[in-house]
Design brief:
Elements: E1 10-14, H1 24-40, E2 45-48, H2 62-71, E3 77-84, H3 90-103, E4 108-113, H4 120-127, H5 137-148, E5 169-173, H6 176-185, E6 189-191, H7 200-210, E7 222-230, H8 234-240, H9 242-253, H10 272-281, E8 286-288, H11 290-304, E9 308-312, H12 318-333
Parallel strand pairs: 1-2, 1-9, 2-3, 3-4, 4-5, 5-6, 6-7, 7-8, 7-9
GO molecular function: oxidoreductase activity, acting on paired donors, with incorporation or reduction of molecular oxygen
Organism: Mucilaginibacter pedocola
Domain Luciferase-like: 20-307
Length: 334
Amino acid sequence: MASTLSNIPYSVLDLATVVQGQTPADTFPKSLELAQLAEKLGYNRYWFAEHHNMMNVGSSAPTILIGYVAGGTKTIRVGSGGVMLPNHAPLVVAEQFGTLASLYPGRIDLGLGRAPGTDQVTALAIRGENMNAAFNFPRDVEKLQKYFSEDNFDSKVRAIPGEGLDIPIWILGSSTDSARLAAAKGLPYAFASHFAPTHFMEALEIYRRDFKPSEFLDKPYVLSCINVVAADTDKEATRLATSVQLFIKGVVTGKRELLPPPIDSMDGAWNYFEQEAVEQMLHYAIFGGPETVKQKMEAFINYTGVDEVMATSHIFDHQARLRSYKIFAEVMKG
């Protein structure tokens, strides 16, 4: 039986993308405006991703941005997609998210990843002698769970605030390792199919097959992130999407720039190998007018069976970006 889009929660992933001619100071108020619109349009959550040393990504401190957006909204869940846990001491993360959950009860999500969210040189600057912290990721997740537990009240080390609060933990991933961890711990699983589609279906199969029910979740729950550029027509969406294609080309070539304005055609803007690499990363991207987005989303949901979708939209013009999220919401509502 085909899934209906109206049964699927839809959410936002924001990288606080910095566009040409602007700075992060210009970007953050636009994130708040988008979150306020998303709340009105019925989006389920609004997450920020942790990245470092990227001139075109302003979300290096997601915890602060979560507080900023949660403070400017009323009902939408706000969280991290994610906090790169090996970059931080679990106790500090517990205290920070405990503070957020105390300020905005019932609205804070904690998505956790093991990658550095940056290049190796920057990772060394962040982690120092703790460069192998990724190997401790499962243990650090358990530490966080312990700090949030009511049973930790008699421990010598406690998270105040944080202890006893309802802060859902998500495991983020772009590989099969994360799927195994999320399954073993009975936690919800968010996959980065917006940039790492290669192992997506394999990871979902592992997660669903190996899932062990827990106090947090009785059956598997998968959130998938995808790139979405929606516009009033396919032609306009295709044009707007050249910005994200150029953005990903910068990732592929290591020549990052601020998000560029759209161009009329990608012909001549990339070579064959760059095009292949970009299109591989954007395998699940959805670009188009309302009807095209609807058809592609239905096909995606039927193919993957995911429980929730999270749209990320790198669009140069802020009004066009707001319009894209409005069209996407209308499509998802059915």
